[in-house]
């Protein structure tokens, strides 16, 4: 496993499971109250990174791309949901050990305070040496803790909201068109005959004349007249999202008083 300083530098970086799949972002390191060595890391998962899951540091190592842990992604996803409150109780630690099939040591289970948080979220590596709820003595004899808080980060994802399709159907309508037509009619034309020959016979006689007319003829043909298509455009809008965030507060507890009645500083 990497050193504590190397692990501290992975805070805020990506976390990968044993198969190299990204599972989230490193948020906090938890160290043993007795040994002071980091034993757990909380990993932010979910769409907005608003879920934190405890992952064991056994077999974990820091790389340039982030923190690689020894657990599988499914095990991390199904891990018990324990709030990141700066301290793990013995019962919470035991539940995590059982989930990851790890054997807890007597050093951990005997501790009355369980595990203490070693680093704060988003604090640079050179400031994380004194971070979290586990006190470290400064060079000038004063006790320091680094206070952390959650900040809301929102993003977007593209989801399918509906489908639109083009459907073509047939309608019947009546059209009227005027067609010019012609027809033949009979009229009597009389022309006088001059110098006619005498002796013409007088008798009945018939002659026929064939008459013609034009009649409208209807024919239909199909021709393309128009193209109809669908296009999409992006409309920008704004939506508000709400989420609860947590922040740490520092209390000053007098060792001579009951620890359950801390004084605010």
From TrEMBL:
Residues 136-154, 237-250 have a biased composition (Basic and acidic residues). It comes from Kribbella flavida (strain DSM 17836 / JCM 10339 / NBRC 14399). Residues 147-252 form the DUF2382 domain. It holds the Pfam family DUF2382. InterPro entries: Bac_photo_RC_H_C, DUF2382, PRC-brl_dom, PRC_barrel-like_sf, Stress_Response_Assoc. It comes from the Bacteria. Residues 11-74 form the PRC-barrel domain. Residues 105-154, 237-265 are annotated as: Disordered. GO terms for biological process: photosynthesis, light reaction. SUPFAM superfamilies: PRC-barrel domain (SSF50346). One of its GO terms (cellular component) is plasma membrane light-harvesting complex. This is PRC-barrel domain protein.
